[in-house]
Amino acid sequence: MGSASNSIAIHWFRQDLRLSDNPALSSALKSGRLLPIYILDEVNAEDAQIGDASRWWLHHSLMELNRSLKGNLRFYRGDATRILPKLAAETGAGTVSWNRCYEPWRIKRDTAIKEMLKEDGITVITENGSLLWEPWEILKSDGSPYRVFTPFYSQGRLNGRLPREPIAAPASISFAPADKYPETVDLAELNLLPRSNWTLKREPDWHPGEAGAQAQVRYFLENGLNGYKIRRNFPAAENRSRLSPHLHFGELSPHQVWHALSFKEHMPELDDDIGNFKTELAWREFSYSLLFFNPGLSNVNLQQKFDSFPWRSDAAALEAWQEGRTGIPFVDAGMRELWQSGYMHNRVRMIVSSFLSKNLMIDWREGARWFWDCLVDADLANNSASWQWVSGTGADAAPYFRIFNPVTQGTRFDPNGDYTRKYVPEIAALPNKWLFNPWEAPTDILEGAGIVLGQTYPAPIVDLKTSRRRALDAFSDLNDSRKAGVAS
Ligand SMILES: Cc1cc2nc3c(=O)[nH]c(=O)nc-3n(C[C@H](O)[C@H](O)[C@H](O)COP(=O)(O)OP(=O)(O)OC[C@H]3O[C@@H](n4cnc5c(N)ncnc54)[C@H](O)[C@@H]3O)c2cc1C
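A: This is the predicted complex of the input protein with flavin-adenine dinucleotide.
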């Protein structure tokens, strides 16, 4: 092994596609000349293969990262447990570093790789690059994990350490020689760009990569933070950060976001907005804790009683939901936003997921799968925890009887109808009063707006009242049968 100045330090980029505030990268730079790599590992990912929208994002993010690394990023495709030890041996690297990931398949794989590298005498550096508090840092006094958000957050905030200060980007990087390393492929050969008929219609709205992430934080602090607490619920408003894909791919760390807020903390009128925004960041932390302590989160009901819930199998309804053709305008607007932009506003995510799992009584896992494929921010922890929360199967779940009414929700949170009209233009001419419930509009109003229900826009695929009742009955049957089971 050579001295630090001429030995090679491999940094394995994963969910940390940035140079600033990258603890494992900073450590690697102290250990030798940098050989930065990215491995698209579809072998170990098994059923957690990333979806099309995320692939699109990843392609562009890697392109940006490679640009920041002056073209030195090496790309690999395949089984990381084979590629990484081999590369380390062939280059004679003394150090391999990465920031920790928390998906069960990654933990299993990374543990195996770490062992292999250590056996080969290589120093392995792993750091926390993506969470304010790692799951094992926030525990109840008896050492067990929290299953409810509020105490989790107050424990983290009040008793945990404060999120660390972000680390500056390296002033300069000394790269390993630009040899042709074995098995390197070009970015294009990762084949990340969509294979299906899906294309992001609103690509210009997004700027994947570290620079785009930092610009987005600045934009949000100036244009979206003021009023966030209330206005974050209104999908037509600017008061949401749209940082989720940047955080998911680690183009920006939560520490950077947390500390960026401190530049606004001298403005007392923003206290509530800042507090509320930090709470949302903490929901992300909580989801990661849930995933870490419940590795089956994406597939297993956290409340076991739901294992016998009579989910309906209804392919036509599922397809109508996916395509934004349910005839319920606020639901359709959300599903079309998702398809066109790879994103959906949080409030609308709650409404469409409640509609699927409750009004349609379709298994939440069907919805989670669709989101996984369509979201640019698809995240195993956040997606699984949120679906379980809305559908009522989660540990800390919205009570099952809380079934969002998409008509009242639309009226309340899209009062001018701007969001709904944007995504459901075929009913745009309806007056606000009937925009969210066109099936109840008088015939002359429909005619005046050029709408023929069932032709120019679908008639609703379910009656909201009846389907709500059906879901509540199924839920109370579930509880009754459990009670009977306990009694017998
Ligand atoms: C059914 C459903 C599925 C979801 N799937 C995902 C997903 O795959 N990936 C994802 O990042 N978020 C998911 N969310 C959570 C949330 O909707 C998004 O994080 C948020 O809408 C992203 O927009 P934003 O960055 O503008 O949010 P902001 O309101 O600006 O929030 C800032 C950040 O806080 C975090 N955050 C906010 N709300 C939540 C939440 N409820 N749970 C966890 N973290 C949160 C995100 O990282 C977000 O970027 C889901 C929510 C629901 C109801």
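The chain has three domains: 1-129, 130-164+209-293, 304-487. The radius of gyration is 24 Å.
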